[in-house]
Fold this sequence. Notes:
Strand order of the largest sheet: 1-2
Strand content: 15-25%
Number of domains: 1
Number of strands: 2
Amino acid sequence: MTYRSKYVGKYSGLGRMVSRPWMGKPCRDAAVRIMHSAEGFSPVGDPAEDRHPGLYKASFSVEPVFRNIPFRGKPRMRHGAMVVNTAPHAKAVEYGNWNIPRYAPLTKAYMAALAEHANG
């Protein structure tokens, strides 16, 4: 005979927990790990050809986020963190364009974080 769990989650309690300010720190810690990984995947130009070698790699930062994420139609404010790159050519490096190939350092860093989390 198999045992069947009867646990029922209390969403109001979980919602109060994730809306607390102290939840911003674990989110920031995860974003910092992703930022360091993205810096490792970032391309650095040749100083002989590139006027700003390493600008993209040096332009990463982590910003705190306090965003409205509705749950069951009701507004709920949640803490988080976001990895951003302020280089003027960041979109071209991430997605590619006519002259720049697609490097996708943020996507690679995100996938590496997912793989690390899945493997424990």
